[in-house]
Amino acid sequence: MSGHSKWSTIKRQKGANDAKRGALFTKVAREISVAARQGGGDPDANYRLRLAMEKARSVNMPADNIKRTIEKATGGGEGEQFEEITYEGYGPGGVAVLVEATTDNRNRTAAEVRSIFTKTGGQLAGSGAVAWQFEPRGLITIPRSGSVDADEVALTAIDAGAEDVDTDADEAIEIYTEPGALESVRKALEGAGVSVESAESAMIAKQTVELDSAKARQALRLVEMLEELEDVQRVTANFDIPEDVFAEVAG
Prior knowledge:
Layout: H1 2-21, H2 23-39, H3 47-58, H4 63-73, E1 83-90, E2 96-103, H5 106-119, E3 123-125, E4 134-143, H6 150-159, E5 164-166, E6 172-177, H7 182-191, E7 198-205, E8 209-210, H8 213-227, E9 232-237, E10 239-240, H9 243-250
Parallel strand pairs: 8-10
Antiparallel strand pairs: 1-2, 1-3, 2-9, 4-6, 4-7, 5-6
Helix pairs in contact: 2-3, 2-4, 6-7
């Protein structure tokens, strides 16, 4: 999972820039809207909505905004109708890329996604072309601090049903679960006094592809441009980031 840890480190450090662009609130609001429309507006009975609300709070979205979004989605006001679409494609070096989008205009989103793949030396592919190279997982992130014992966290998580724990990253511990076990493992960690930074559904590459530094920079640019699209919720790719490129981006 080391490749995913590098991704997570870069995304944490980019978080402030995402917020400056104003894109983060829009993306989180759409996630809340879709979750509420599909499963109802009660977070106690709608786990996906609860996760989306927690993400919104973690990026400091005002409580009024969260409430308004749920009300619009569940009939308390007029709201846009969003649908979820996953695009698949190949990036530089044959890298597999999944693009998860939430859109009110699938023609616009498809055109924008296709254009970015083309501009960055990639190619949009058909449904099923690369999805088999990824698997759904629950991902829990634990921030490292002086009081956190990584071994204790790992034991608690595994006892609660976690599949894997990555303690290699300096900034955070990453815990991977089966999708259905995400909530129970999160509760067990919080019950043990562990501070959970985030708990979310994720797509994890089964294997990563090694690229040279030039191709890795191109692939990162592809991911970055896709993530800047308002309709795109999440981009996942299966390449490992060479240490020199990682140092450039994360530094």
